[in-house]
Design goal:
- The complex is a heterodimer of chains A (226) and B (162).
- Chain A is of the alpha+beta class and 226 residues long.
- Chain A has 3 helices and 11 strands, in the order H-H-E-E-E-E-E-E-H-E-E-E-E-E.
- An 8-stranded antiparallel beta barrel of chain A has the order 1-3-4-5-6-7-8-9. Chain A has a two-stranded antiparallel ribbon with strand order 10-11.
- The two termini of chain A are 30 Å apart.
- Helix content of chain B is 71%, strand content 0%.
- The N and C termini of chain B lie far apart (49 Å).
- Classes of the chains: A alpha+beta (226), B mainly alpha (162).
Chain lengths: 226, 162
């Protein structure tokens, strides 16, 4: 029972924290990149510009995902993105994940999909700044009796993605942190987001009816659930 | 904020929102939470050796002072935005009655127990880390946490019966 209560406490506290978004603050959260105050900042800025130019060059030459809306920064836009899990950290231990199956996807119509290599999960997702709230998660129930630490870590990492999740993107690595677990992910290029073929069980709450896409954009944002 | 030295400005930028969220769990209304965090940064003169731990500790201590002061000026706060009354980002989460009851129950715990519950289940700190933040022994953390969970169990049980 304590475990249940502890889980409820975590979810409740994180859910309440997720309601505190920068736009609700009296004093705006300052920009992440502060004004330059030290000469070395100029060197760093020059390096960043150079890196950006090189990055743009690769993007233009590679050209596979020119519609990429995930920008470097602390609050990436996750709409229409898919990610492969590369590591899971919990209890101070980081477990690399190499199986390409272990992944998550954030669909434009607010469907959330995840695969821990053993089971598949689906639910709803919503983003507010640097917090993603994942809800209504349901999954398959295939048992795993093995002891592969990578599989167990993948299950723990994917299993933690429920409720309020902190999200950040640094150096191309997406980090989802919740319930004492941090999941590291790398972007899957070439992800083809498609609306659900049929209304999901909670489809009436999304506001984004299947097919409501115009040039990759949602016609109307999903309304708040009531 | 703009007068802060560059190092402190960086700390502010990195931790402001997270600290406001932590403070909000301890003082209940958003405006007071912001005041708590602003006061903490206003009191900083140099970058602490362990900034995150220092800031957590300072926020917890200042939130406690705020709660003490609030007893005296409770009516003055009547117009402030309580988190429970604010429009939540995801209404269905906070409309869950059991969750709301649980948050109210956490808010009614004694200060120390409330701090420990928040640090344990929101900040995901271990017992020794909580002890370091609060400046008390790990044993005191464990016993307080146990009492807090018992109280929450009892409170939820009571509510289910009504």
């Amino acid at each position: 029972v304590s475990t249940d209560l502890e889980t409820e406490l975590r979810e409740a506290l994180h859910a309440r924290a997720a309601t505190i978004t920068p736009d609700r603050l009296r004093r705006p959260v300052p920009a992440r990149r502060s004004a330059r105050r030290h000469p070395t900042a100029w060197v760093a800025a020059a390096a960043l510009v150079l890196a950006a130019i090189v990055g743009i060059g690769f993007a233009v030459l590679g050209g596979q995902d020119s519609g990429d809306r995930v920008a470097a920064g602390d609050a990436p836009d996750l709409r229409s993105t898919a990610w492969a899990v590369t590591a899971v950290t919990g209890d101070g231990r980081r477990q690399p994940i190499t199986s390409p199956e272990v992944s998550v996807a954030f669909h434009l119509d607010h469907r959330f999909d995840a695969n821990d290599g053993v089971n598949f999960y689906s639910g709803r997702w919503r983003q507010s700044g640097d917090t993603v709230t994942i809800s209504d998660v349901a999954g398959t129930l295939v048992g795993y009796g093995g002891h592969d630490p990578a599989v167990l870590a993948a299950q723990r990492g994917i299993g933690a993605l429920n409720g309020a999740v902190s999200v950040s993107l640094r150096d191309g690595t997406l980090r989802l942190a919740t319930h004492g677990v941090t999941v590291e992910l790398s972007r899957r290029t070439g992800f083809q987001d498609t609306p659900a073929a049929e209304p999901s069980p909670t489809g009436s709450r999304t506001g984004g009816a299947p097919g409501s896409y115009v040039n990759g954009s949602e016609i109307a944002p999903a309304p708040s659930a009531s | 904020v703009t007068e802060l030295p560059a190092e402190l400005q960086r700390l502010y930028e990195q931790h402001y929102l997270a600290l406001v969220r932590l403070a909000a769990h301890l003082v209940d209304d958003l405006e007071s939470a912001e005041d708590v965090v602003q006061d903490v940064f206003a009191g900083l003169r140099t970058t602490p050796a362990d900034p995150v731990r220092y800031l957590r500790r300072a926020v917890v201590n200042r939130a406690r002072s705020t709660l003490r002061r609030r007893r005296v000026v409770r009516t003055f706060l009547a117009g402030r935005t309580r988190l429970d009354d604010a429009e939540p980002a995801d209404e269905d989460l906070l409309r869950n009655e059991r969750r709301r009851t649980l948050l109210v129950a956490v808010g009614q715990l004694p200060h120390r127990q409330r701090e420990i519950v928040v640090l344990r289940y929101y900040e995901d700190l271990g017992v020794s880390e909580i002890a370091a933040v609060l400046g008390i022994s790990p044993g005191a953390v464990s016993s307080s946490l146990s009492r807090a969970l018992d109280a929450l169990h009892s409170r939820l049980g009571d509510d289910r019966e009504h």
